[in-house]
Amino acid sequence: MENNVAEADRTKEYEGEAAPDSLERSLAQVVPELDRLQTEHETHLKATKGRFNVFTVLRGAGDEAGLHSRWIAYLLDPKGAHDCGPLFLNLFIKTLQKIGVLKHSNETDPDFLSSLRDFDTAKASMGTEVNFGNGRIDILIDSPGSGIILIENKIWAAEQADQIARYGEYLHQPKYEAYKAKALLYLTLEGSQATTAGDYSSKYRRISYKQHILSWLDDCLRETYQFININQTLQQYRNLVYQLVFRSTPLEKTFMTAALEVIRKNPAVIKHYREIADAIEALRKERYNAFKLEVNNQLQGDGIALSEPTEASYYVYWRVTTIQQGKWTESMLTIFFEKGRFFLGAWGVEAVERLEKDFFAKMSNSMSSRKLTENFSNCTAVVDLPEIFTDKELSIVVANEIEFKERVQGSVEIIGQYVKAATVICPKVMVRTI
User: Fold this and answer.
1) In DSSP terms, which residues pair with 14 in a beta bridge?
2) What is the pTM of this model?
3) What is the average pLDDT across 177-182?
4) Is-contact 127 140, C-beta < 8 A?
5) pLDDT for position 388
6) Could you give the CA distance from residue 427 to residue 331 in angstroms, rounded to a whole number?
């Protein structure tokens, strides 16, 4: 009873204005303060050139084959043009020994780590995208008679059919029987379990960018501080990996710390955060559905349509179909939605086998006004669609319907241009008539 009276008194006291712990009052204080912090953060980024990263200029941040596998293999190669000999490979092996590796069952594997003691890094050779007849190995480290390490690198792409099992069979063939150290390492952002190991589930080992690669890069930075060119490039790559793993840069983490203090002083925001988050996700879904519907409506006038969304491990994707000789024909062209962004590309292993060898070059020439990325998430000749669904962009398109429609029209233009160019360049991109 007393609590009800006290509550009534408080309500009466603040009648006609927001209560001191109300969401309205808190937002009135929080939003301007967060805007101020955001402005300071942007100013600092510009002053320090904190957004500059040579890797993301040349490749997409999640480009497994063209960026990460190639760069990691380059560093690990004792004969690499970095002229550091086996330094980076030695540090990589020490990192594995220091942190350990996990089996599929989440158990550690001390026996494998012990076998690495005799790995002759000076004699090791390096290969990337090694074709062994039943697949392509991302990174192959071979020190004859001493050890062999296969690394399958996955950031956002899904595994192919029986992929880890096929690589396991390759590793355990007779020609490697005498090798003291043999390992199939499955490298992911968080150290995820493989889903395609089959009977080889007990024979592959898990490592992660979050633990192993970041720790290895820290060691590499310490050992190369006197070599400016190498050290600065290693730092940029570390920044990229950090951003992939933690979804933010160190500078963004500093901004988040300041934002945390603003929220701490205005706890009503915390009290209502579930409603706020749910409302934002509802808006995101609303815009998502409206985007696909409007894009489809506009594309169908040009004989192009999108399938219903298909859920995959890390993204949602839509197949593109076109009118061919009066019938709808499915293509290997796919729009996929990943972490707030849309991409368009020729999808999957089947597509790579069916596409012309110079498909990327021809598409780049045909779409000279667009920036294309090669081999991103198992795609070939990928182009970005206008951003709409990241938190920052969502706030813009929710507040401005005209902006939303312009983003839709921009996507329609890119999709139409891409599909028409692809079907002319490579008729084999068409899969089957529906």
Assistant:
1) none
2) 0.61
3) 88
4) yes
5) 85
6) 10
